[in-house]
Each structure stands twice: as C-alpha cells, then as structure tokens.
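Write out this protein's structure.
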Amino acid sequence: MRIMRQEGEAYDMALIEGLRHPRPDIAETCAWVLGQRRTRHAVPALIAVLQERPKEVDVQVAVVLALGRIGDPAAFLALVEAAQSGAVRVRRAALHALAELDFDRARPVLQQIAETDPSSGVREEARRLLREGGEV
C-alpha cells in the first residue's frame, strides 16, 4: 500500500511540474488531471499558473475548473479574481468553479457579475448559476 501511495505522490508531483511546461497543451492536461484527482496540495501551483500564464486561455480555463473541482477554500480569492478579470471563457469557467467550490460564499460575486460584467454571455451565465442555486 505504501508503494502505491508513493507512486501516486510521484505522479502528482510530475503533474505539478507539468504546469510549468512551455507547451500550453501539456500544462492544460496536467491541470485537468490534477482537478480530476482532486490533488489538494497542487492548489498553490495552480493558483500560480493563473498569474504566470495570463494569455493562455485554455490553460487558464483548465486551472480554474481544476480549482473548483479540488474544492480547497484557499482557491476562492484567486477564482474571484479570474471571474472578474480573465478572458471571457476564463470568467465563465471561474463562475462555475466558484459555484462548485462554495455557492453560498460565491453568491454575492455571482450577483455582482450578473449585473456588471461587460460580456452579456458572462452575465447570463452568472444569472443561470444563481437561478440553479449552485447545482453545477
């Protein structure tokens, strides 16, 4: 059992390292897998990617969705920032991640975005999430 845990930890560390890979498709895949595995100790590295790779929209979307799926409250503020200032696809994904992470805490953010976001699609997505009450 210990060997399997060590192998899993080594795999997670390789995925975390992969977030820094120069190829965006590899970083995106690593973020997705970390989210699927709900690798909580990857949260700081995932948050760092949001600042280090701001122009790579696919990577950013994968990161915010991974953060929502992992469910660590430490990601909340980074997701709020992504929901307020990222590219349209990133903002929409961040809304979903926030609702999945902690809908009650996200509600005021969703309401603000539903009223003020410059994109009608993002505003509508926030409204839809508010109507559904966090059922992502």
